[in-house]
Amino acid sequence: MEHITTPKVENVKLLDRYTNRKAANGTLYLTATHLIYVDASSEVRKETWILHHHIASVEKLPLTTAGCPLLIHCKNFHVAHFVIGQERDCHEVYTSLLKLSQPVKPEELYAFSYNPKMSKDNREIGWKLIDLKVDYQRMGIPNDYWEITDVNKDYEVCNTYPPEIVVPRAANKATVIGSSRFRSRGRIPVLSYLYKENNAAICRCSQPLSGFSARCLEDEQMLQAIREANPGCAFMYVVDTRPKLNAMANRAAGKGYENEDNYDNIRFKFIGIENIHVMRNSLQKLLEVCETKSPSMSDFLTGLENSGWLRHIKAVMDAGVFLAKAVKDENASVLVHCSDGWDRTAQVCSLASLLLDPFYRTFKGFMLVTQDLTMFCFSLSRCGHLDGDPKEVSPVFTQFIECVWQLMQQFPCTFEFNERFLLEIHDHVYSCQFGNFLGTCHKEREDLKIFEKTHSLWPFLLQKKQELRNPLYKGFTAYKELQPNTLPFSFQFWCGMYNRFDKGMHPKQCVLDHLLSCMSQKMKLEDNKLRSVHDWSRKDAIRLFSVVVRGCKCPFSSSKIDFKKKKNFLALNESLHGPSPCGRTDSFFVSYAYLLNKNNKKNSVPFYGDHFNV
Amino acid sequence: MFSLKPPKPTFKSYLLPLPQSEDHITAEPRIKKLEPILLPGEIVVNEVNFVRKCIATDTSQYDLWGKLVCTNFKISFITDDPMPLQKFHYKNLLLGEHDVPLTCIEQIVTVNDTKRKQKVLGPNQKLKFNPTELIIYCKDFRIVRFRFDEAGPESAKKVCLAIAHYSQPTDLQLLFAFEYVGEIYHNPAKKVNGVDPGGGGGGSIGSASGQQTPLFETYSDWDREIKRTGASEWRVCSVNEGYMISTCLPEYFVVPSSLADQDLKLYSYSFIGRRMPVWSWNHPNGSALVRMANIKDVLQQRKIDQRICNAITRSHPLRSDVFKSDLDKCLPSIQEIQAAHIKLKQLCVNEPFEETEEKWLSSLENTHWLEYIRSFLKHSAELVYMMECKHVSVVLQEEEGRDLSCLAASLIQVMLDPYFRTIVGFQSLIQKEWVMAGYQFLDRCNHLKRSDKESPLFLMFLDCVWQLLEQYPAAFEFSEMYLTILYDSARISLFGTFLFNCPHQRVKESTEFAISKNIQLGDEKGLRFPCVWDWSLQFTSRDRLLFHNPLYIGKSAPCVQNGAVKTFKRSKKNYSSTLRGVPPALKNGIISDQEFLPRRNSLILKLKPDFLQQTESQSNSMEQYFRDWFTKPVDLHGVILPHISGTQIKLWKLCYFRWVPEAQINHGGFITAFHKVSLLADEVDMLNRNLRQYKSNSSLQGNCSELDHSRMYFRANGLNDTTGAPDFLSSSFPFSPVGNLCRRSILGTPLSKFLSGAKIWLSTETLANED
C-alpha cells in the first residue's frame, strides 16, 4: 500500500492506562488493514490488533524521555497509548495511520478487499439471508390495507429509500408522488412495523415542507390513508422526535412539522431527542469520564451526569416506549419523523418494534432490525467511514445498541443473543469489513456494487451463534411486549461497551466463553447420543455418569479414555470455576455454566462410551 | 408514666396453627370477623372502624375499607377486601399483609384537610384537631396512608395518639418482646408458630439442614471457632463471666494465650468501656484479626499498647508484626453515615419522581452513601491484603470499638473466609461481630425513638455484602432477598437478637423484668427471647427457600484444577502455600496515617527515615497484589476482593426501591434470571436424585418424598422445562409495593405539596410546631 512507509517499528512501548504496570515492549507492524502490536516482553505471545477503519483519531503527544507518544482512539472505544523510540518513526506511523484510517474513496474500504474464501453462491446466499420482504410477509403484508409497491423502483420517488416500500393500499400513485414532493428529500410516509394483532402501524417519514402555512392535499390524503388502514382506531399519532424548538426553527427554512388543523384526526406530539451534534458531544464527555484513572464515586457519578449520555439514552427509550404503548394500548397507528427521518426516527422505530415483537429479540429478528436501519435511514457519514465532515459523525447506532443493552439489563431472559452479539455488530458497523453498513442508502449500495463485491455480515455472525447466544433466554413465547422502566435510575452505565478494552475492569477470562463452549459441548454430545453404542451396558454407563457428575476420580484407567477429549472436559470444568466475574449478569454465567455443565452430564455418557469401545 | 398493663383485653388472643400445619396457615378465621391476629402477650390498645387505606397515588378507586387497630406490637389494618393490583404477597407469619410493627415506624403524621393542619405526633402529645388522615412513615422507606372520612372523629384521634404513644415507648422493657416472653414463661404452651421461643439455638433455615447458628454466648462456641480457624495460640477467657470486667463485652471472648487473666484484668482499666483487645478470627497463615477500643490512659498508652502487641505477635506462628488500623481516622463517622442514610431515604422516596429527575445521578452522589460503601469495601480489602499477603495480624482500633469495627471486622471475614458466605456462617458472623461484640442495636436502630445515636451501620454492612454478592453471585449461599429480610427483621421487636445494646443489657433488663413479673428464672441468665435465626417464626419452610441462592456453588461441588479433582476444603496447607519463607520486610512498611507497631524494644523513630519511599513501595506492592489478584481466576471458596472503581459500586435497588410502585419493572428485573437459574438448579438436583436411585438400585416409587425436597423456591416441572416466568414476577419480588406508598393526596389537599416537597425526613421540629 502506498501509504505505508514504515511497515515495522521495533522497541515500541504500549502503556496500560489503568495500572502502573511496567509498559509492555514490543514491535509494531503496519499492514494494509491492521495495525498489529506484538508484545515481546511477556512470555506468552500477546498481540494487539487494531483495524485501520476502527481508528477514530491519532494524536502525537509531546516528546518524552521515553520516546514519542502516539495516542490512538478507536471507534469501538479502544484507546491505545504507544511510545515509539524514534521521533521519525513515530511521525511516519502517524502520517500513515492518518491516511489509512480515513480512506477517501469507498473502493478503498476493507470490505472490497476482504476475502474469506467463500464461493460466489454462498456469498449470494449470505446476502439473501436477511430479507425485509420475508419480514413483511411475517407481518401479513400485503393485506387488505397495505401493499408492497415498486413505485420507487427507479428511485424516482425517493433516492434514499429502497426500491420496494410499503404504503397503504388506499394511497394511489398520485398521492404517493404528491406526498413525496411535500416531504424533505422525498421521504414519504412508509410502513416500518405492523402490529398484526390490532392493525396499528408504525410508519416513518421526513419532516413536511410546511414552513409557516404550506399545505399539501396529497400528503393529507396519505396520512388519512394510513389512519384508515387501522380501522380500529379513529385517530393516529404523528410524532416529531425533535425538541419543539428545533422543529420550529426548521419552519423558517420552509420545513417544520404538521399542523394539526390541516390533517384529520391526528394527534401531534413532540418527543425531545437531541440532534446529532448534541449526542456527539455527550459521547465525548462520557468517554472522558471512562478514561479517568480509578475514578472516585463522586468523579464517576458527577461525570456521568454531566455527560448527559444516559439522559439521551433515556429520551430514545422514552420515545420507543411511547410508540409501543400507542400501538399496543391505544390501538393507534403512529407516524414518526425527525428532520430527514434517518437518525432519531430510525432508532425509535426499531426500538418500538423490538419492544412489541419478540421475534426481533431473536438472532434473525435482530438482524432484520439492524438491516432495516441501514435500508431506510442509516447514513454512512454518521460512522465516519470515509474522510469527511467530522460534524456529520454521530453515535446514532451506538445509542440504538445501548438501548437494546439497557433492555437486556431489565429483562435478562428475553433476548436470544447476549451482550457480545451487540458488541460484534457495533464493531462491524465501523469495521467496514462487510458490505452491510457501507453506503448511505440502497441506491448507493447498488452503485458501489456492494452486493456483488462484498460479503454480508450476517452469515458470518450466525456461524458464531453458539458464543453469541444468551443462556438465560426463556424462549420466543415467554415474553410478548416489554414494558421497561424508564425512570432515570433504571439506566446503567455500560461498562462492557465503553470500558471494554480496559482489562483492569473486567475478568481476564470471559465467563461467557466458558458458558457458551459448554453449550456447544452439550449440542455435540446430543449429536453423539444419536450414535450411542448399543453394547454399552447400563451399569457401566451409570458408573461413568457418577464420575462425571460427582467429579470424583475416574474409576477407569485413563488409557481407555481418549486423553485429548478428557483433557478438554477437564479444561472446561476448570475454566468454569476460574474466571473472576465482573458484573452480576456476567458472573452469573459462571455458576450458570456450572449448572449447565452438570446438566449436560446426562448426555455425556455416550460421548465417553464412544471411546470406551474403541 | 405509662404502663403496659392493658385496660382489660377486649380481644382474646389465640394460638396460631401448630407446627405440623405450618405450610397451611392460610385458613384463618380473621377475615370474616375483622379481628386482628394476636401473638401471645399482644393486646389491642385501640381501634377505629370504617377506615380507608389508600392504595394508589392517582385514584381512590382501589382504596380498601376496614378497621385500623393499634396493638402493643404493631398497627394492623384489617379488611375484607382483597388487595387490588397485587399478584403476589410474601407472607410473614408474624404480620398481616397490612401490618406495620411499631418498631418499624419512623414518623407519624396526622392531617386535617379542612383545617389545613398537620402535625407530627410525638409520644404523650395532644392533638388539637380531629385527623382526617394518618400517614405512617416507616424505617424501611414505606409510607402508609389511612383516611378517616367515614370514621368516628374521636376514635380516629384516639388511635392516632395510641400509635404515637406505643411506637415511642419510654423504656426498653415496654418493647413488645418483654411482654411476649413474659407471657410465654407464664404459659409455656403458647408458642408462636409452634417454635419454642428462644430455644437457645440459632435455628435453621432449611428443613433439610439441621445446622444451628452458633450464638457465641458460651465458652464452647468460641472454642470451636478457635479450632475451626486453627488459632492455636489463642484461648477462650472467662474473666468476664457475670460481666465482672466489662458490661459491653461478652462473657467469653478470645485472647492471646500468652496473656494471663490477671494481666487482662489489669489492662482492661485503661481501655474505654474496659474493652480490651479481643480476637475475631484467624487467617490460616496464622495472622489474627483483633478488635480493640482506644486506650484512655495517656500515660500508660505506650506501655500497654506495646504489651498487647507483643502478645499478639507471640500468638502469630511467624511472630509477625502487628498492623494497627485506626478506623476513626480512615472511615466515615457514624454521624456521616446517618446523614447519608437520611439523604438516601429522601432520594429513594421522593426525588426520583420529581421534575428534577435529570439530577438523579448527582443527587445520588450527594447522599455519599455509595461513597461510604466504597470506602468500607476499600479499607477492608486493604486489611485483607495485610493479612493474606503480608502475613501480619491486624488490629482494628476504634474509640469504643463497637461500631465501625463491627462492620470492618465482618467484611474482612466475609472476604477471607468462605464459611461466612454460607447462611449459617453469615449468621454466626453477625452473632460474633455484632450481637456479642456489643453493637448497640437499641440505640443505633433507635427502637425507643429517642436516641440521637441512630445510625444504620448494620444496613451499611448488609449493603456492602450485597455489593460483594452482586460481584460474585456464585460465592454466597444466600440471596439478596435473605439480606433484605434480615434487615427487616431488625425492626420487629420480637427478637432478642437486635433489641439490645449488648448481651449484658439483655440479662440486666430481663432479670429486672422477670422479678417485676414474678417469673422464676432458675439457672438462666435473664430471659430468653426468640432468636431471629429461628426463621420458622417468620416464614414457612417453602418461603424460606427464597433465601437460597441458586447460583451458589456449594462446598460439595467438585472443582477440577490442573487435571486433578479437588474438593473445596478449608485446609491449612491449602492456604499457607503462600506462606513459604519469612514474611517480606515489613517492619519498614508504613501506610499513611496508620502505624505498624514494631516488636519489643525497637523504636518507632528508627523507622522514620525513608518514610515516603517506603509508603510508596507499600502502596505499590498492595496495588500489585490487587492487580495480580484480579488477573487470576477467582476461587469462589477462597478470598474474594471487591471491585471498587466508581463504575462497580451500585445502588441496592431491591432494598431501597421495593416499596416504590413507579420503580418496578413488571415481568423483569434480576428475579427473572434468578427464576431461570432456579429451574435449572432444580433440574440438576432432579438428575442427581435420579442417579442416586439408579445407583442404589431402588425402584422409582418410594422416593417421592425426596423429590418434594427441592432446594429451590421455583421448581421445574420436569427436565428441560420451558414455561415462562410466573406472571407475578417483578423487580420488587418478593415484596409488593402496592399500597405502600401514597405520595400525593387524591383529594388535592395541601398534603400533595407537603409530601412531595417538604423535607419531611429531615425537619420534624418545624412541623411539630405547626399544630
TrEMBL record, chain A:
GO terms for cellular component: cytoplasm; nuclear envelope. Pfam families: Myotub-related, PH-GRAM_MTMR6-like. Substrate binds at residues 275-276, 338-344. GO terms for molecular function: phosphatidylinositol-3,5-bisphosphate phosphatase activity; phosphatidylinositol-3-phosphate phosphatase activity. Keywords: Hydrolase, Lipid metabolism. The keyword Amino-acid biosynthesis does not apply. The active site is at residue 338. One of its GO terms (biological process) is phosphatidylinositol dephosphorylation. SMART domains: PTPc_motif. This is Myotubularin related protein 8. The gene is MTMR8.
UniProtKB/TrEMBL annotation, chain B:
InterPro entries: MTMR10_PH-GRAM, MTMR10_PTP, MTMR12-like_C, Myotubularin, Myotubularin-like_Pase_dom, PH-like_dom_sf, Prot-tyrosine_phosphatase-like. GO terms for biological process: phosphatidylinositol dephosphorylation. Keywords: Phosphoprotein. GO terms for cellular component: cytoplasm; membrane. Residues 216-656 form the Myotubularin phosphatase domain. Belongs to the protein-tyrosine phosphatase family. Non-receptor class myotubularin subfamily. PANTHER family: MYOTUBULARIN-RELATED, MYOTUBULARIN-RELATED PROTEIN 10. This is Myotubularin-related protein 10. It comes from Anser brachyrhynchus. The lineage of its organism: Eukaryota, Metazoa, Chordata, Craniata, Vertebrata.
